Amino acid sequence: MNSFYMLFLTDSLFIAPAFIGVLYFVARIWDAFNDPMMGLIVDNTRSKYGKFRIWLVIGTLVNSVVILVMYRSFHLQGTALYAFVAITYILYGMTYTIMDVPYWSWLPNLTNDPREREKVSVIPRIFASMSCLIIGTFGLYVIKWFNASKGLSDLSEYGFTSFAVIIVILFLFFVAITVFNVKEESTAG
Question: What letter does residue 103 receive in the DSSP assignment?
Answer without folding.
Answer: H
